[in-house]
Amino acid sequence: xxxxxxxxxxxxxxxxxxxxxxxxxxxxxxxxxxxxxxxxxxxxxxxxxxxxxxxxxxxxxxxxxxxxxxxxxxxxxxxxxxxxxxxxxxxxxxxxxxxxxxxxxxxxxxxxxxxxxxxxxxxxxxxxxxxxxxxxxxxxxxxxxxxxxxxxxxxxxxxxxxxxxxxxxxxxxxxxxxxxxxxxxxxxxxxxxxxxxxxxxxxxxxxxxxxxxxxxxxxxxxxxxxxxxxxxxxxxxxxxxxxxxxxxxxxxxxxxxxxxxxxxxxxxxxxxxxxxxxxxxxxxxxxxxxxxxxxxxxxxxxxxxxxxxxxxxxxxxxxxxxxxxxxxxxxxxxxxxxxxxxxxxxxxxxxxxxxxxxxxxxxxxxxxxxxxxxxxxxxx
Length: 380
Ligand SMILES: Cc1cc2nc3c(=O)[nH]c(=O)nc-3n(C[C@H](O)[C@H](O)[C@H](O)COP(=O)(O)OP(=O)(O)OC[C@H]3O[C@@H](n4cnc5c(N)ncnc54)[C@H](O)[C@@H]3O)c2cc1C
Fold this sequence. Notes:
Blueprint: E1 21-22, E2 25-28, H1 32-43, E3 48-51, E4 67-68, H2 76-83, H3 86-105, E5 115-118, H4 128-150, E6 156-160, E7 163-168, E8 172-173, H5 176-187, E9 192-194, E10 199-203, E11 206-209, E12 212-215, E13 218-221, H6 227-230, E14 239-248, E15 259-261, E16 266-269, E17 277-279, H7 298-312, E18 318-328, E19 335-340, E20 343-347, H8 356-370
Parallel strand pairs: 1-12, 2-3, 2-13, 3-9, 5-15, 13-20
Antiparallel strand pairs: 4-8, 5-7, 6-7, 10-11, 11-12, 14-17, 14-18, 15-16, 16-17, 19-20
Helix pairs in contact: 1-5, 1-8, 2-3
Flavin-adenine dinucleotide binds at residues 28-34, 51-54, 58-61, 63-67, 198-199, 222-226, 230, 243-245, 279, 324, 326, 347, 349, 351-354, 357.
């Protein structure tokens, strides 16, 4: 099956934990958020043990659209309306995170190509309803651009072969599996990492895994879509949804950068090899997609295949299909919350965690180590 993993090369992996261990800090979950927490902890001179139930980025962090888009799940104008001016602070934090990631991993991994928010999907509307929806979305793009410009954030109107909308030049694209595994290799120099080490219990000073107990005064739990399973006390504050994607054979170059349309529900990226990586459709089958089950379904995949055809401007051949769980919160503000003494849980990025997750991770470390209260754009 074709996936982002095709570019991983020979991943040597990290051994499972071998018995009880102790460190200044333990991080549960080696997705992009957990890795950022490890970086922040090790940067403070602390000894760190990081564990994951599977491989590095075996969850959403290595299976997502690879969009490195500034801001949180609601576009900035909506986020400001819901959360107030702190939404702009979060936007700036994610831009800083993106700069940091570019510096760490370089332009081959972090491609600063911008992103396009389309009104609707490419091609003529299939119905009057779709045409009306596209007009409404175009008006929403204009509202988004006003708020971005008001805060000095770069945005341009987009009108081109894909349709109309906005171009956001600061954003970027990545292969998410490569991004996470490269970062893990760098961090393995300063921290002890263990794959295939499922955690069964977390409490103050103590992380219990299937292979031993890690004793650590500071713990960051970064398991996003599994938060409510590992920490049942968070049920109600975070809910898990399945997001689905597919990959296609190469098609002629059509997407100059990550493109998302139909109110951001559908999205696609085309790396230099010409393959399309396309996802979306959760909103159309929303009740079925509230699940921890990471098996792709025919109804969502059929929809995504249609989206892939519209992005490609012609037929596509699907070569891989997958899904992964992500956490959603009621008001879309990510969680960064103290669950026990020295234990901070993060997650609930509502489907947009590639940059927001690391921002939450750094806040979690500041909270756990220095007692700094999280910024108001995080849900404490
Ligand atoms: C199909 C899809 C497309 C997406 N597209 C985008 C996008 O383009 N841009 C964007 O910003 N966001 C996107 N997202 C969301 C993004 O992937 C997530 O928000 C982000 O990956 C969260 O990272 P994380 O490190 O917090 O969690 P995860 O990536 O979920 O990592 C959590 C890790 O914890 C581990 N774990 C779970 N339970 C345990 C346990 N009990 N013990 C030990 N380890 C455990 C898992 O194995 C996993 O490796 C998408 C998500 C999906 C599924």
